[in-house]
Predict the 3D structure of the following.
Amino acid sequence: MSIEFIIAVLVTVVGAATPILIAALGELVVEKSGVLNLGVEGMMLVGAVTGFAVTYSTGNPWLGMFAAMLAAMAVSMIFAFLTLTLNANQVATGLALTIFGIGLSALVGEGFVGKTIDIFGSVFPPFLSEDPVWRLVFGYSPVVYFSLIMVVAIAWFLQHTRAGLILRAVGENDHSAHSIGYSVIGVRYAAVAFGGGMAGIGGAFFSMVLIPLWTEQITAGRGWIALALVVFSGWRPYRLLAGAYLFGGVMTLELHAKASGFSIIPPEIWAAMPYLATIFVLALISIRRSGHSETPACLGRPFHPNS
Amino acid sequence: MTKLTRRNFVKAAGAAATLPLVGRPALGGEPLKAAFMYVGPVGDFGWSWAHDHARQLMEAEMGGAVVTSFVESVPEGPDAERVLRELAQQGNKLIFATSFGYMNQAVKVSQMYPDVYFEHATGFQRTENLATYNARFYQGRSVLGTIAGHMSKSGIGGYIASFPIPEVVMGINAFTLAAQKVNPDFKTRVIWVNSWFDPAKEADATRAMIDQGVDVITQHTDSPAPLQVAEERGVIGFGQAADMTSFAPNAHMTAIADDWAPYYVSRAKAAIDGTWKSGDTWWGLKEGAVGITPYNPAMPASVVAAAEAVRKGIIDGTYDPFAGPINDQSGTQRVPAGGTQDDGQLLTMDWYVEGVQS
């Protein structure tokens, strides 16, 4: 097995892991603030169609990515208004947001089916980005580096900044945070907007980087995997990074085992692998955890300032 | 036509339920109401798109005699039964269920509504008022296999496949057998993505194939993603269900085109005339239900000639995609010299020919 081949596999793993990682990082911040937004899949689709449409129309992928973020942020604000201002049920509203996102993206994307754009690829010079070995470091879309920076930034934000502390306080004990003068609703609005923007970028990764085209439901359920990863990670950014790459790795290994043409393991076992791995890791975590829950205490609970 | 999605379908059904019960519309005078149920979005540019395209052609050709509606993205399984029942309750007299996985639900609902005509694509179970229809895509795959055999340098083809059902298995075998007629050492590697439509996974599977030395990609899934990866990596591929040249101008050699319109027109006419009968229809290249789209101009003339020879041979009956002798993966002879596979054997095919690595 040559080094070039191993690098080719690793590059594919990064591609599979990145969109899930970005969307899950956004959702992690949302859930840390005590809000459960199940609309990740819908927001990703809105981002995917917007990113594609804007890049197709303007030829500028940076603008496309930015528009994807804004569009998904805008639909996340519908969710925020319903659940935070009107106190609607978060689970039901989140599911509705997903269904809405599927429909809206299909409607907006109708005129873009069958079109194609240039891949939003590496911005490094070709002698680095296309070198069979160095492409492991330099061969990615800027969005991949962004996702890694965001892991560090969010971990630092949550643990070492005052704003991060306030966010966690709002998620762990909303009434205490309120009583010492923090705007619970305001913090949650900001968190939901951030989660929406990240989901939009994650979605646009599909239509602009992985496969430069628009088809309905292009994300094919990855939003749900992102949601599961947040729980899987125990709401910790670095564990989330590991989880996303583990998931991407298992999915890619499965494909390579089949593509190599001599797989001893039957295809059904490979198809079950990501889920087996999930159960295995969850079991490990629950063994290690000594009785205390990592779930934000106010997750999914509406906040009434006067109750 | 009314555009029905699963979302506003529920609303429409709810509104319809509040109407007082009206008698069954008589067929004379009133236009025939026909409904279609698709497994994917109509914008998939593949399987469901082809069915929907045929629906529009049928409606246009029949003038005002038929009104159609459709429901898209209906999952295979229990949900299909609910959708079929509601379509029947809305007064549709001719209902097309266009995916293999709707089989059990179509059988069940056809028995509940004996005066509605049901049609199930690619299935094999029929009732008094449930007919089945299919297209001989494997004939088109013989043409693709011939091209692959000529064009592949590595002698390894990659096959992005959905589910191991006979429909897919016979396509893999026909592709491999045709390629082996050109290059006896040709191998086909199969990746099951366990979905009809998952662009990201189809693309990753294609990348994995190419990293492993595959230089011809073909697919039995519905998105253009594998072709785009083929274009990006400089290998060749084929369109699925429709011409996909726009996604991959260099990689796209040709496509197997589905044309369901002639069948839909004939069934709508039969339903109006009262001559509709349950049965199994299996049309191919000859009847025009399967077509080969224009070849890529970059394809060498000798390869075009070889592909055309196979296409014409299938039409006039001189080329049999499953002519023996054929060995299976273990080397056991399945079809003796001079033998072939009849339709019944094709529809239950569950073994792979020698050279398929699945």
About this structure: The radius of gyration of chain A is 20 Å. Chain A has one domain: 3-288.
